[in-house]
Structures are given as structure tokens and as C-alpha cells.
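Q: How would the C-alpha cells look for this protein?
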Amino acid sequence: MLENIHRTTAYIKSRIGDFVPEVGIILGTGLGGLVNEIEVEKQLMYANIPDFPISTVEFHSGKLIFGKLGGVNVVAMQGRLHYYEGYNMQQITFPVRVMKMLGIKTLYVSNASGSLNPGFKKGDLMVIEDHINLQPQNPLIGRNDSDLGPRFPDMSQPYRIDLIEKALNIASANNIICHKGVYVAVTGPNLETRAEYRYLRIIGGDAVGMSTVPEVIVARHMDLPVFAISVLTDEGFPEVLTPVSLEEIIAVAQEAEPKLTLILKELIARN
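A: Here is the predicted structure in C-alpha cell form.
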């Protein structure tokens, strides 16, 4: 894997010249519009990058964007990879390792997720303070390469506390409803049953989604600080559960996106 990482990194560097990103951004379902705030210097299609997996999900465009956001050099993944697409965990997290090799110092992750907490409503934002991993594979399984990170990385603080507090302060100052909570990662692609929503709430989840945790595990393995935020696009409340479609999820995500963009842009500019 390390050989592939170096080959991919070398190719990208040959295309972006002396541009060195300080921040990496992963944009979730329906949340690719943050790219409009980036002063774009270079765009690379995933399909044209050696060894880079290709996003197959609708509304994930599959571009690596290089430019400035809030005066900071960033690289943004416009379209992420998911376990349910058939990729293994090493493939899903490969871009995080490449971004680290390109020079990023912090990883910012966004996603669309379902609320499990009755106090968190559809359209609200939630800063992730911790997570529960219910996905069946771990990206660190297999031989460990000490050049990438330790065999047993600590996960007592997977998300940077100072960035969490700063994000909540930015939200408050701009009258944005933004909670702090625990994210549960499942495989998908189906949404959850009533009993599953009930179970996920019982074990301590505030929101549920199908991504993010593998990338966070690998980032922490490489000693990359992480900030993550969810747009709550639907409500998994067993008592009043109603069917939801992808179109509805995308619509809510896109409506909430300007709030998420404001928080990320200000947070990145301040750090």
C-alpha cells in the first residue's frame, strides 16, 4: 500500500506543482457546494489519478479540488467513497493517506446523517464529538506499516476538542442551530428499521450514517487532527418514523449546506 500511496502522491504533485495543501476536506452527500467557496487552482478527476478509487454514488462528482479557502491552501474531496459501494476499508481511506503525504495538517470531514436524538431535528447541524463504529471491517486490519502509524493508535480523543468548541461558537454567533453529539457508523446502503433506530439510540448514538469513521480512524493512525460535522437530513425516531427518499435527503442537505459552509470556512480561516 505504501508504494501505491507514494506513486499516487507523486502523480498529484506533478500536476499541482509547488502547491502544498495545509487542510484536507471530505465533502459528504449533497454537500459538494463548499467547492464554490474555494479559489480553485487545480482540479483532478479521481478517474485520472493512478490507484485512486472512483466514487460511484449519485451526487458525488469524484473530483480532487486544490485551492484557497479563507486564505488557507486546501485540498477537497468532492465526493467520498463508501463501504457499500463494494470498496474495502483500505481503498475507502486511501485518499486520506494521500492527502497526508501531500502535506495536510488537519482533516475536516462532513456528512449527511439521520438524527437519533429527539432533540436534534431535520436540517440541524451536529458537530461530532465521538463515534461508535458498527462497520464490519477496520481499515487498520492487516500488517501495520510503522511509516504510516503505530500498530495500536489511541482513540480516546478522535476529534479535536478545541475545534469542536470553536465551531459551536461560530454557529452560535451566526444563529445556526448546531448540536454536539455521537455519530454511529453503519454499512448501509439501506436505511434503518424502527428496531435498529431504537437500538442505536440506546447504545448512545445521536446520529447515524454510512461513512466518516473509517477516514477518521486512518487520520488518527497518521496523527492527523480531525474535525467532523453532520447535516441531519432525516429523523430516525421509531415512534413517528416515516419513509424517506434519497431525493428528500439531498434536498435537506443542500438547504442546510450554506450553514455548514459558513462554519467550515470560518473555522479553517481561524486555524
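DSSP finds six helices and nine strands in the chain.

The mean pLDDT is 94.

Upvote if useful.
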